[in-house]
Amino acid sequence: MTAPLVLDGVGVELAGGRRRERVRVLDSVDLVLAAGRVRALVGLNGAGKTTLMRVALGMLRPDRGSVEILGSPVQTAGPQVWRRCGHLVETPFCYPELTARENLHAAATLRGLSSEESRRRVDAVAELLGLEKWLDRRARTLSLGTRQKVAIGAATLHEPAVLILDEPANALDPRAVLGLRGLIRDLAAGGAAVLVSSHHLDEVARMADGIDVLHAGCIVGTLEPGGADLERRFFDLVLAAEDQRAEPTGDEVARP
Ligand SMILES: Nc1ncnc2c1ncn2[C@@H]1O[C@H](COP(=O)(O)OP(=O)(O)OP(=O)(O)O)[C@@H](O)[C@H]1O
């Protein structure tokens, strides 16, 4: 059986150079996301994490390589595929004039949940993330972190088979970070394939089965979450990759 998400030789170039020339943002990225596993994607600012996730979700067409999601090429995947996916990349799902509860029910309806299932799942994610007392407030009146909780709830309440979250813990309070971790681990235990990006090595070490390090658009290694000195191992990989880059670019990483 093929894995729920497969990126094969993905390359992306975007017009981001000093004279608007196209620069390589992802370079020959191979990634296999297995069912029941949580993979974390870590890297410095600008490494390409969000771009990789956008490509994985068909939001950006790669210049080279291919992406397959739940057995379909990503560019032609239909509603039956997207209904089984959850994501939080860039703009969070949140209609400002709807209450938090209405937003969550809208997300559940889009994914084909019955009203009874929807009520059960909204209550469950609200409890896990500490959202209960905000459920009947309009989203536009909620704090940034509380809106982030609504967006995480919307991405997860249908128990997706593939879940892609770009820095989901940003703006969350410590209780919600714990809840998020529990939510992700529960979904993976139920068979979901999860890809999550973060800047916090300690946090991903607590939730991921493997940590892929992205540097300058390449996956330069995978770290085991257990064991000591994760930060040191991360920088060793990044600096070794930096040393291998042929041309100096002016944005080299300072040795910590
Ligand atoms: N639309 C765009 N046009 C041109 N360049 C872009 C575009 N989007 C991203 N880039 C460039 O692609 C590179 C990777 O950006 P990306 O947002 O994927 O990195 P990231 O690892 O998610 O960064 P961060 O940790 O800061 O969120 C950066 O150099 C960025 O400037």
From TrEMBL:
Pfam families, per database record: ABC_tran
Key word Transport present: yes
Keyword DNA damage belongs to the record: no
UniProt domain ABC transporter: residue ranges: 5-241
Alphabetical keyword list: ATP-binding, Nucleotide-binding, Transport
Similarity-based family: Belongs to the ABC transporter superfamily.
Protein name per UniProt: ABC transporter domain-containing protein
Source organism of the structure: Mobilicoccus caccae
